Structure prediction request, 124 residues.
Amino acid sequence: MRILGNILWIIFGGLFSAIGWWLAGILWCITVVGIPVGIQCFKLSSISLNPFGKEIVDEGGAVSCLLNILWICFSGIELAITNAVLGCILCITIVGIPFGKQFFKIAKLALFPFGTKVVRAKYL
Prediction:
């Protein structure tokens, strides 16, 4: 079921979300100081391509909080708004609700990406 969900996800907007993460990563990697942030963007684009079967675990600290503040000022707002709007559009229909929930999960991640870890969900 996860494979089918992820294939449909890419068709219904997941590719646009991943492209947004890739563009943010490229822009951050232009400067030497922003390379760690850009690498984090590339890592988090994986959840934008296949979010079904993955969970976000918070493991933040003081440095993560500082990076999240910088992130929100420069890139986070745009990615979060885009994902939240796509989530609202998909939640209008009953069929789109699971996809909308995934966009909301990614929107939360777009606001606070540092100090979070993407892990495989454990199913019984």
